[in-house]
Structures are given as C-alpha cells and as structure tokens.
Write a structure and sequence with these properties.
By secondary structure, this protein is α/β, with parallel strands linked by helices. The chain has six helices and 18 strands. The longest helix is centred in the N-terminal third of the chain and has 14 residues.
Length: about 290
C-alpha cells in the first residue's frame, strides 16, 4: 500500500502517539511519502525515520491513500493536494472529534487494520468551483471549495450588499456582514454558526446563508446544487474578501463571482461503524439529557 502523510502543527502532547503512528505506517509502506512542511514540524518533536520520502505540492502519483493528521481544517487543505479527488483521504484527528477528521488517534491502529482488510468505506463529497475575473496570484491554483464560498467585509463597520442570481433568475439582495454559499459538507461549519440547517453530505443542494443580515427576515435558503449562482458585492468598502474554505483573496466592488458544482468530488474514508448521523450525535451532543451533569 502506497501511503502519503500530511499534517500541520504538532503538539508536544501528541508526539508519542504520532511516533507510534509513523511506526505503524512503515509496517504498511516501507517508503511512505510525507509533506515537507509536516516532516519539519514532526522533526521538532520526534525522530522521523529516513525511510519517509518528503514531497511538496500535490500528493505524488501512485499514492493510494492520504493520511491527514490534524482537524477538519487539515482535511480541507488536504483536499487541494489529492489530484482532483483521485486519491482518498483518511482524516486522523489529533484533537477533538471532527466532522471530516473523524478517526481518533486511539483508533489509528484499528483504521490501519481496516484499510488492510478492506473493511473501510468511501463517501464522495461535492465541491464548488469558483470563477471571478481579475483575481490575484494563487486564486487559480485550486479554485474550489469543499465547505463554502464566502464574500465578507474587511475591517470596517459597513455592511456588504450582495446581489444573488441563480442562472438568469434574480434571488435576492442581501445587506449583511457577509454571504456564504455552502456545500452539504460545509453545512456543519460556518453556515451552521450563521444559523443555517444541517444537511446530509449526500444531499444534492447548496445553502445560501447571510451572516448577521440587516433584514431579519432574510433566512438561509436551500437551492439545488446544479446550475450556476452569481454573487455581486457592493457597499461602502473599497474592497471585500472572497474566501474558499480557509483561503482568502481581495475582491473588488461589483466584481462578479460565479459558483457552480465542480466536475469532480473528494473521497473520504470512513471506518465500518462510522456514519454521518453518529458523528453529528457525538459532535452536537444530541440525545443527552441536559438535566444530567
């Protein structure tokens, strides 16, 4: 099995667990790939065997699985590296349970056993493709979002005014701190904190969610995934921000942003006993009696 490893920050408290995890990886792949920045971060806390082969940029050809150590943000960044979804991602959470990184460090050996035995299962997650004329350097490297696309104001108290169309049909004008278009995957992220609904990842829809809207009757809106959504921002600010997951770019007033479904999907690996509803129950503490402390 050809394995690649990606991660970001390393906590000293995780060093021993990560050392054991790296040792287990070597049992499955004698020459695993590891991202160069993560190798440097690991090397500050433990001795990484020379068998690990560093890489930069996209995951090398021939990789069969990418192990992403961290939280949901790490998985979002890993999604930019897997060659347009051809390589599945297994998110290993080094902190609390995540929606995307839903394998704990305590379950790592179990996950590796399941990979070898072929008892894991994969799910596909839709992405949004973003097009905006005249965007700066780096925008076109990966113009996709797994969670959400957001237009929001910069460092002023002024609101952003966003006109929204779906195809040729006018939807609404939103006066708000920002506006986001979320995938079903992103429904449990920024959109949820802004009052949006939770959607099952297999749902064929997106959510248009205003952030702190001026008009209180402007509520989140669920629309079909297919087709194109156009956003045009204006307001008192001379410049806004356009964000795709954790990547942000300056956006000029009245600069048109077009959003449509990407022509590929990201593949996430789950253990046999895992499903979206069990993750939501654990993460959201559903079913717990609030009277019990």
């Amino acid at each position: 099995m050809r394995i690649a490893i990606f991660g970001k920050a390393v906590s000293p408290s995780d060093a021993e667990a990560l050392r054991l995890a790296m040792a287990r990886v070597l049992q499955l792949d004698p020459e695993p790939w590891i991202s160069q920045p993560y190798l440097a971060a690991l090397s500050d806390h433990l001795s990484v065997p020379n068998a690990f082969v560093p890489f930069e940029g996209e995951v090398p050809e021939g990789t069969e699985v990418l192990l992403a150590f961290g939280g949901d943000g790490t998985v979002l960044e890993a999604a930019t590296m897997v060659r347009r979804g051809r390589i599945p991602i297994l998110g290993v959470n080094t902190g609390r349970l995540g929606f995307l990184s839903n394998v704990s460090m305590e379950e790592f050996d179990l996950a590796m056993d399941a990979l070898v035995a072929g008892t894991t299962w994969e799910e596909e997650r839709a992405l949004l493709q973003v097009h905006a004329e005249g965007m700066g350097p780096g925008f076109g490297e990966f113009p996709f979002a797994l969670n959400e696309v957001v237009i929001h104001k910069r460092d002023t108290a002024s609101m952003v005014v966003v006109d929204v169309h779906r195809g040729d049909t006018f939807v609404n004008t939103y006066w708000a701190d920002g506006l986001l278009v979320s995938t079903p995957t992103g429904s449990t992220a920024y959109s949820l904190s802004a009052g949006g609904p939770i959607m099952h990842p297999a749902s064929d829809a997106v959510i248009v969610t205003p952030v702190a809207p001026h008009n209180l009757n402007d509520r989140p809106l669920v629309v079909p995934l297919d087709g194109e959504i156009t956003l045009v921002a204006d307001g008192r600010d001379a410049q806004f921000l356009l964000s795709m997951d954790s990547r942000s770019f300056p956006l000029e007033p009245k600069q048109e942003v077009r959003i449509r479904p990407a022509d590929f999907k990201i593949r996430l690996i789950n253990l046999e006993h895992q499903d979206f509803f069990s993750t939501v129950r654990q993460k959201m503490h559903w079913g717990l009696d609030p009277r019990e402390r």
